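User: Quick one: structure for sequence A, then sequence B.

Assistant: Sequence A:
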Amino acid sequence: MAGLATTFGSGAMTNSIEEISGSEVIFVIGSNTTEAHPQIARRIIKAVDNGATLIVADPRNTVLSEFAHIHLRLNPGTDIPLLNAMMRVILREGLIDDAFIEMRTENFNSLRNTLFAQDFEALVEITGIEPSLIERAARLYASAQKAVICYCLGITQHVCGTANVESIANLAMITGHVEQDYTGVNPLRGQSNVQGACDMGALPGVFPGYQSVSDEAIREKFSRAWRTKLPEAPGLTVMDMTHEGVKNGIRAMFIMGENPVLSDPDASRVEKNLGSLDFLAVSDIFLTETAQLADVVFPAASFAEKTGTLTNSERRVQLMRKAIEPVGECRTDMEIIMAISNRMDYPMDYEEPSEVMEEIALLTPIYGGIFHDRLEHTWGIQWPCPDRAHPGTPYLHKYSFARGRGLFVPASHLPPKELPDSDYPFLLITGRTYHHYHTGGMTRASEILSREEKEAFLEMNPKDAEKNSIRNGQMVKLRSRRGEITVRTKATNRVPEGVVYTSFHFVESPVNRLTNPERDPVAKCPEYKVCAVAIEPVS
């Protein structure tokens, strides 16, 4: 989400979740919302029931696309041509918001020149969508008074992920669809509390509150508070550690609540890298595939056994209260971190989670007014909340963007790093299913959820199945340039010809052994969503 952060700040939702219900036009792109974010999908469907127009851009026929007034069934990896084509229509038909562009943005001429330099018919051909559908979608979005864009990992997990996000920001700003309630750009976070983790500095280049490590004054502030000298340079990204940690000089690693052996692309390489470490420690509530490789495993407390805060996609900080005492020998994350820190000669002596929250408020301006005692009496406070008297911020950028003026950043089509060829004739896209979450560490421990979906399925168009003599329900070998797995097929028109789809929840069919580790050059996010594969029946 780095591209959106350039203009909009953190990459968080500009609006509140409930505002989606009151929008006139909702444009969903790169998100299978009903399966990955069902509570947000509920608001989208409610808005449709209230008369809103729904536009869905997705290569697959999803449950949400069945509710859509327009389904833009684009070729995988062609989001930029689609967005540019929509903006060409908006420019051509005079639907831009001239006043907003003049008062609140910069670099518009560069965007306009780039768009007019691209042939509309050529853009449409790349997407594979009927021109009339793109034109109708553009008009509806631009003409609405209240319009939101919702996107997720289908936008960011490409080698052009940053440019994808910047193109979404371009579309929103060219029409003035920001700075208001019911109107904005809403990235739907991929995991529980990933917003809170980013807010707290779990990114290589920032301290909590997105304060840059390269800023000397910011660095000095945190150095004084934490009583230690802090590095001037950004740290390593996740893949720099999980794929090349040993090469980058890492000898030991501590992994908390993450299962990269299943969740990272080219996962065989992750397993090899972790196995080459001098020491690996893992903290988790289940013995995950990553934990099975560890020298030491710390049993961690679940959500019900600890007190603290979670920050959701709409920037809402909510208090989570301990319901039961930690079971057996498990400890809370705070206790585990403190115990390790104390043994490494950096004393930590917080007595209560509320003390940590007070330190966060002291050092992090966007959290400056958020304390446990305030959260006790609310269902959450949305940052920015600079002081105790502030009620929180339901929607962002009412008067200005984080950088001042919104910056238009033109983009051109950058195809996926791997496209089908004679050796690997299919394009694999990956995602999630309704009944399981991430690598299945928790959901597959549930008897009921496992009953609903016991194994992975490879969705394949019936015409492709017939051409390749593959029966519905047959096991196949799925190969990429990085590895192979076996998986059961499901013949369905949900995917177009030449495209196959599966989820990454199942260790029996670990699809991330196949996915491409090529990364976006800015955000360093890998291209999970698209890679070339071959399919062979298993007799």
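Sequence B:
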Amino acid sequence: MFSRPTAPPPEPLCLETALKQYFGYETFRPGQQAIIEAALENRDLLVVMPTGGGKSLCFQLPALLRSGITLVVSPLIALMQDQVDALQANDLAATFLNSSLSGSESRQRQAQILRGEIKLVYVAPERLLTPTFLAFLDQVQAQVGLCALAIDEAHCVSEWGHDFRPEYRRLAELRQRYPHLPLMALTATATERVRQDIGQQLGLQQPYIHIASFNRPNLYYEVRPKHRQAYPELVQMLRQTQGSSIIYCLSRREVEDLSARLQQDGLRALPYHAGMSDGDRSRNQTQFIRDDVQIMVATIAFGMGINKSDVRLVVHYNLPRNLEGYYQEAGRAGRDGEPATCLLYHSPKDLRTLDWLIAQKVHPETGEPLAHEQRVARQQLRQILDYAEGTVCRRTIQLAYFGEAFAGNCANCDNCAQPKPLEDWTVEAQKFLSCVARCRERFGMNHIIEVLRGSKSQKVLGKGHDKLSTYGIGRDRTADQWRLLGRTLLHQRWLDETTDGYPVLKLNAASWNILRGQQSVQVSVLSTPAAIDKGSDKRVSAANQAEAEALFQRLRSLRKRLADEQSLPPYIVFADSSLRQMAQQQPQTLADFAQISGVGRRKLEQYGDAFVAEICNYCQAQKE
């Protein structure tokens, strides 16, 4: 057993000063400062913060302010590379150890670590728990000291998460080996059940818990049926998109076919899927993150390992497997806080494909169906279908899935931008909820609908539910209409549903308010879509907007050239949000340039002269 060295740390910087010096930001994002303060008190932490919310900074800044080394567990090589590149671009001491390195490179980096030259070390869970690496950690602890363990993508710990990885379960072994080492678990997506499982599996001790809002207000959500015009629509949208785009497909074949078709239509697109060689995947990803191509067509194997901040469009060309995965994949748009669009296409063919994939969940040795996993997967599939066919605010549905209430009317999704007509279905809701109660809250939606519509199915008759007072009282509505009402009740959290693979409806306090006549129920009914006019709230004049856009494009070109000279992704030089601020404020001195968000000490020294000169040249040309 080992404990951390007790030598006092150096006099700490003011947190706001350190934030600006190391990362170039003037203020913390919501929740960050409290998390960092708890980390500096050596507490265990559980941080759930959506993509783009700044969760990486929550372990990176404390690591820079403490003595010793912070280990960062990360599941993908590309993710490690990306975060280490970004840290090193700010002249911060970070490195990674993984299978992409040669033996001599690994030994060189380990020597740097033992000399105390490194503050953050990224490592995969499989490598971290090998006997050789654990022996190396013992040496690090004795010579330099370990100060914290940060576990990124912590939802991988839980079998209830959308990306369960068994090797993550073993991370709790480090708690036994280094009992005083504080653990920080971080993830962008976790339901209440997943959060509880993370805490239990990792043995978190009285953790500081921060659950940020899952709302991403800069993202516009839209769902469309995949009809014959879907491909021409997609091409038009891609051509109009300023910035990078990701298109997700269900199968490798569709990835190949769609990327080839886009290339034939003159769009710069590349494929990415698990069937490609490591070299081809790596080359395509590198071209995408360095802006050599604008479009990546991929299976869900792509995206988790990049921090590309300027993705303006994410398209799901097929129905995703589950709502949690969709939220994370769509969330790769607009990580810089700038407006971005998330478009989902779906068709009946997708359902057949996904149902077939679920049926392939079998025991690897016996071939027997994994019944529990199949039940959970089918319930998750129904939830994403409910989202796709839902008529209420998309955010209401998404956030309710994560247990967060949202009032609706976000004004930034298709259902809110073009609201459907509302009808008063309070009486129907009372019938529906009364039927749930009469069935003793033991059945799912399909059974309740069958009872309401007077079905003579064997299950209804066998349970004696044809004798209930609610039997047949809903014959005046179709099954689809009752299903629309049921979805609305669930999405508005006026009704609950179990999530263990057996979706059973349960009444809650809001349900009883409806039954007592204390709450009315309005249901959005489907109507013909109309054109959506976004951007009508712009306050900037057309002339000023055009000028700022022209300078923004020049700064993007400069960023690309500087990034190529250093073999870096452009967003590591500066994010789009920083470039837009430069284009709007037009700083023409280094002192003014230093005030731009994202300009820290290192980037001011490295890039300040070039960007200020470009801005000055542009402003001078505008005067002539």
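The longest helix spans residues 542-565. DSSP finds 27 helices and 17 strands in the chain.

User: Thanks, that's what I needed.
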